[in-house]
Design a protein that fits this description.
The protein has 308 residues and is of the alpha/beta class. The chain is 46% helix and 14% strand. It contains 12 helices and 10 strands. Strand 5, helix 5 and strand 6 (146-149) form a beta-alpha-beta unit. The structure holds orotidine-5'-monophosphate (OMP).
């Protein structure tokens, strides 16, 4: 392709289905953790940008057709990549658009620079043979670097994912929603953290820990030991960034990924966005500047919390 960043050679050997190339650095293939660490060295960022394309929310100047949504995502990715430790497309938003959505997912993956780790937010988990297919679909066919997985069905449902030693597997531990209190609290989330530590024989596991329970993060860390935490729930869900980061810092150099989706894609509340809105020429460029501004602000806020 003419522009280096989007130059993606097609997959090796999987028929006509697109597969992201594995990322090589000085000819050594990186596993997920190495890829994250490498990305961190380049960006100094803990921000994971969530890609949740909702046609109802895509800014007007872009439009709502799959091509227009693609254009929007492509621009957001490009404008915010400086602050992106990782990107996390949520499959629900793509699947909700039907076949076109799956094509959109594939197209978006192609547009993401190889050195940005992609976490497929799919929250999969089923009996072993079915989990095996889920893992194959997202980690091989689509070539994502990591996936979110639901541990409710136990070890044999997780095992097919664990076997992908070079990929990152984020297991739901304590989710950010209010329903986390129905089953996960008071004990199950700690059992999950303990089990995941036991299962982490390939050092490829991490936990999903919502930022809406800062008071429980320390206990999770004690059970899990050092492993990456994927932390959603800040921004639109009102999670406590500073308190969560305080608890997650345990002196080890284990990456934590702070996810924000809506507050970056559609930062209606940002000052910049409102300023633009008041002007007559509210353009697609303004929307993208606003997303970039939101990513920059959040990146700074995270860095400031980590300094304290
Ligand atoms: P925002 O609230 O818009 O930042 O989006 C949060 C994203 O993280 C959504 O894609 C959610 O599906 C996802 N998420 C949670 O909000 N809570 C969780 O406990 C786990 C996840 C996730 O696995 O990413």
């Amino acid at each position: 392709a003419e522009d280096g960043i989007r130059d993606r050679s097609p997959s090796r050997g999987l028929g006509d289905v697109y597969k992201r190339q594995e990322f090589y650095y000085t000819n050594i293939r990186m596993n997920f953790l190495e890829k994250i660490n490498n990305r961190f060295l380049r960006t100094n960022s803990h921000l994971c940008i969530g890609l949740d394309p909702d046609p109802q929310k895509i800014p007007e100047p872009f439009g709502k057709t799959p091509d227009q949504i693609f254009h929007f995502l492509e621009e957001v990715i490009e404008a915010t990549s400086e602050y992106a430790l990782a990107l996390k497309p949520n499959l629900a938003y793509f699947e909700a658009l039907g076949l076109e959505g799956i094509r959109l997912f594939e197209k978006v993956l192609k547009t993401i620079p190889e050195d940005i780790p992609v976490i497929a937010d799919a929250k999969r988990g089923d009996i072993g043979p079915s989990s095996k297919k889920y893992a194959y679909a997202l980690l091989e066919q689509f070539g994502c670097d990591a996936i979110t997985v639901n541990p409710y069905m136990g070890y044999d449902s997780i095992k097919p994912f664990l076997n992908y030693k070079d990929k990152g597997i984020f297991i739901l531990c304590l989710t950010s929603n209010s329903g986390a209190n129905d089953f996960q609290v008071p004990n199950l989330y700690l059992q999950v953290a303990e089990k995941v530590r036991e299962w982490n024989v390939h050092s490829n596991l991490g936990l999903v820990v919502g930022a809406t329970h800062p008071e429980r993060v320390l206990a999770i860390r004690e059970k899990s030991g050092p492993m990456p935490f994927l932390i959603p729930g800040i921004g639109a869900q009102g999670g406590a960034l500073e308190k969560t980061l305080e608890a997650v810092q345990d002196g080890t150099r284990v990456p934590c990924l702070i996810n924000a989706s809506r507050s970056i894609l559609y930062p209606e509340k940002s000052l910049v966005f409102n300023e633009f809105k008041e002007t007559q020429e509210f353009s697609s460029k303004d929307c993208i500047s606003s997303s970039r501004h939101a990513a920059h602000e959040l990146h700074q806020e995270i860095r400031n919390c980590l300094k304290n």
